[in-house]
Write the structure tokens for this entry.
Amino acid sequence: MSQHPLPENLHIDTLAVRAAVDRSQYGENSEAMYLTSGYVQPDAETAARRFAGEEEGYTYSRLGNPTVTSFEMRLAAMEGAEACVATSTGMSAILLMCLGLLKSGDHVICSHSLFGSTIKLIGSEFAKFGVQTSYVSQTNVAEWQAAMQPNTRLLFAETPTNPLTDVCDIQALADIAHAGNALLVVDNCFATPILQRPLSMGADLVVHSGTKYLDGQGRVMAGALCGSKTLIEDVFGTVMRSAGMTLSPFNAWVVLKGLETLSIRMQAQSQQALALAQWLEAQPQVARVYYPGLKSHPQHALAMKQQSGLGGAVLSFEVKANTPEQGRENAFKLMNATRMVSLSTNLGDVKTLVAHPASTSHGRLSEAQRQVAGIQQGLIRVAVGLEHLEDLKADFTRGFQAL
Ligand SMILES: *Cc1c(COP(=O)(O)O)cnc(C)c1O
């Protein structure tokens, strides 16, 4: 159906609901979902041209699907990227990125505090193929610089990090990467394009787990890579055709609709997280709160500049304890005494989720490794949702009263 082209220079909130709307002959206002694995070709000549890449047109959903394309184009518009490729999960986006960019003998620099499965994938699985990895402090730019080697291909950063919300300087890392002919990849899962657009600060690629805030209601798994047309279409598109970590059209439709409310959710959940963080800082049983929106956060100024003045929706706090055993016991007591918040290691939901990193996401580390990473036994991570603030405070108060 004929559509007017969108006006230029739209704001991100508008792009979230208006970019890449694809209407069929029926003119539906909400995007249609194309649940099909294959496409009927009008004639044999067209099929031949489409398979040869000489003509646009869908052939098979591993190679492309209109619902998946809508999600890719909308997310690309929001990240300020030329192009985007959607994947089945956040991890398969990172796998695709590695398959496309790394070869035997290459070197990668990662922060210590990357998502655990990312460290496992690059540091262990790709080590089998001769890829070497160095780990550096998230916040110390000099360490990233010192780790550069002639064969460094990638710098991989995530900001803010999970669960301690450390913030790194995207612009500074991009400069280091480019001076050494390497690429900077940023996992933008926690901030989302609403708070932070890494490509505008010099990053070459953005990685997403669509499972988190892009969906926003904890329903489906999804992932994406956003960047230049050359990288997305020529490098990753080629790998994707054979490797097949394709996003299903159903999941694409869910995250496409999720994007429409991303702006309002990120703003509301960030404001709620700030209010809860300030309240937690004032509780006598709390030793420390980690949240980029707090003045006490070591990278508060950088975070406010880099993240549109918002801290995001994830915070962590440590309950007071004299020993690690007591810290763990207190964290467990507190979590078990709540009656509303969900005990879940996921994040990015409108329901508030609490988790104990030392026994779950970081449970496979030794106590010494956890100390280096700064994950204390008394640490609780909160992915703040949309419940009323007073109800959240009341639930955590039930937790504190159990100590
Ligand atoms: C969840 C997560 C991932 C992995 O995404 P999946 O969709 O679970 O595969 C990657 N990075 C970060 C920061 C995450 O929180």
In short: The chain has two domains: 12-259, 262-401.
